[in-house]
Structures are given as structure tokens and as C-alpha cells.
Amino acid sequence: MCGSCTPALPTGDVTSDAPGEADRARGSGIGRRGLLYGGLGASAALTAALASAGPAAATTSGPVRRSDAPMRAVLVGTAGGPIWPMASGRRGICTVVEVDGARYLIDAGHGSAAGMVDAGVIGPADGKNDLTAFRAGFITHLHSDHVTDLSTFLVQGFIAGGLGSVESPFHLYGPGDRGALPAVFPPGRPTPTAFNPTEPTPGTASMVRQLLAAFATDVNDRIFDAGSPPVDRVVQAHDIELPAGVAVPVAGPPARMSPFTVHEDDRVRVSATLVEHGQMAPSYAYRFDSDHGSIVISGDTTLTPNLLEMADGCDVLLHEVVDQATIEASISALPVPEEIKEAFRNHMFGAHTTEAQLKELLRDVEIGQLVLHHVVPGELPRGGWQRVAQRLGRGTRTGVVAGRDGDVIGTR
Ligand SMILES: [Zn+2]
Hints:
The structure is a single chain. The protein has helices at 21-27, 32-36, 40-52, 112-118, 150-160, 204-214, 216-226, 231-234, 305-311, 324-332, 338-349, 355-364, 384-393; strands spanning 71-77, 94-99, 102-106, 134-138, 170-174, 235-239, 260-264, 269-275, 283-290, 293-297, 316-322, 369-376, 399-402, 408-410. Helix content is 28%, strand content 19%. The two termini are 30 Å apart. Bound molecules: zinc ion (ZN). Zinc ion binds at residues 2, 4-5, 141, 143, 277, 280, 300.
């Protein structure tokens, strides 16, 4: 999921689990305890199964939706989860909201920089090759499948794309340091050694600072040799501060809260709310309101009251979705006892949203259009995501579509 989220454990990104690791672990004598508790072997097997589920489909084939409304969402990438290779043909999760020509980035998954060219956001399709229209960006959470192309966007954008300026910096907002490691899962597994123990859970500001620092040789070459502006003045990252009295959740669901404003300019007001994404906290959904309507992006989450409040009355809701049958089949195939499989099921479905939960959502809130994105797996047999959208649309006034890379969805 989360696209991120199948992580090593089903709620995290699966980034550290290379396909085939389970087989290697079994062959190399990893103890029964490791398998019993669903350690790397089981997690890797689940990750590999989900990554390869479904046929390699041309999800961008056929005419994409191309709204020319003044407020619209460009679906740059629609795949959920760490994807390597991209068996479904979808790029990693990334959305660009456009309001009267101003642009706002929401997440930057694998392949999203190239996907912006394909979608006509930058490059030949729009006749220019710059990022000057981008005013701000918003990271839903720090699973790698949502941020892995951030360095390309920021560094290449700063060097060659005109991203931000000293007078008008590009502002990037995202989760702060939650200040605590996740609980060990499944319960009873020996506590592992934390990676990077001096800062095991950096927030958005620290992540961007470290990303840019890693490119200091190049950045300084540009500053000294080519007259580029100081990167830390034109790109400014911010940890989102929660309203007074709202604590960062480190275990269990987030506190019930109402949306709060994180960014406002002459085109748009952007608000955030906490959503429930397993142990990945804080995780945010965002709502964009303008003179032309409203767009909400769920981020990775299971069905969450905070999001229902935020989404009610919006014109367009982009929501994540996972295929329950695929996940259950993948978990059933794991070489672990039944109680561990059940723990995995609870883990996965406590962090993501199924078709049945979206049906519930549509009963509870008024939405102009529901767009499925961040889909897991990337493709279902025989155009399955289209059929899911059709089923969800029955008996409701809400239009429901299965998003594809390159779709441009307007608010009217
Ligand atoms: Zn995630």
C-alpha cells in the first residue's frame, strides 16, 4: 500500500524488501522464529506478490481525460506502493493541482518527474521547460513511494527548471518528526536495531535539508560557476505544526480534529487533517479550495472520520484504494501460521481503504466526483479498476472514475 505501505510491514513502504528475499531467507537458514513472526521473509514475500499482481497493462492507453477547467488535478502517477519495476505501467503516486495556472505538487513518487512531462505539466507538451508556476508542495506522509522523486524535482528544478526564487520561494510542507519509532510488528518479534539512531524519524524539513546537502558539490558548482541562487532560499521546507491541543499520534488512530489551514495565497487555500495510516504518523490529507471549487487528496489512509469531514461537499476527491481479494490472497500464501496471517490482515486493512469502505464513504458524504488513485495492485485483470468504479457509482449521484496516469480532472 501505501504504496508505500506495505512495508516491510504492511503499513510501511516496502522499500527495504527486495523481491525474492523471502526465498533467499528460507534458503539461508533464517530461523523458524523469523518466519514465525513474519520477519523480512514474510514481508518480502507479501511485497513481491503485491508488486507483481495483475498483468502488465497499458494503463495510460486510450484517451486520457483532459479537463481545461481553471481548477483541476493532474494525475501524474497513480500507482500505490513501492514499485520496481512498474509492472502495471503506472508511475508512482504524484498529483499536481492547477488553479488559474498556478501549480501545487502533492507527493512525488517514483517516476513522477518524467510523468510530469508525459502529462504535459512541464516540458515539450506545454511548450516550455520550467517549474516557475509551482508555488508550493505538500507531502502526505513520509513513506518512500510518496517522496522518492523529490530530489529530482527539487534539485533539477532548482538548477534547470526555475523552481522558486529568492523573492518567491517554493514552499514544501509535510509531516514533522513524530519523535518515536513504530512498535515492533508482529508483536513478539525481537526488537530490531534502528537505522540512523541519532535521527531515526526525520520530518520533512530535515529530509529536504539532508537531500539538498547530499548534492552540495553540484549545488555549489551551480552557485559559484553559474550564478544560481542559494538553494535553501528558493526551496523552503516546513514541518506542519498541528493546532494546539492536537498531539501527533504514535499509536492507534489520530485524534478527531477539523481541517486547519497550512498554506494560503491569492489562488488557493490549502488545509490539512490527520488521517489513519497504520503506524506511519503523522499522515495528512489535503484540501484545496479556490474560487473555482475544491479538490481533496486522501493520502494513504483507511476510512477516517477526519477525512469524511474534510471531503464533505468537495467537487473532486482523489482517494486511495486497495483490492481486498488481492491482498488476502497474498497474505494467505505467506509461509507463516494463521495467527500471523490474521495480524497481517489487520495491519494492512488498518492502513488502507477497500472498495467496501469507499461505498461507506459515499453514503456518508456529498462529493461531486470520486477519482480512484494510488491503486493497489496497479492493475486488476480485465480492466478491473474500471469495474470497481462502476460498482461504486451505482446508486449514488457522485461520479466515480478509475484514475489513470495523465488524466486531468476538473472541478466543473
Ligand atoms: Zn504510505
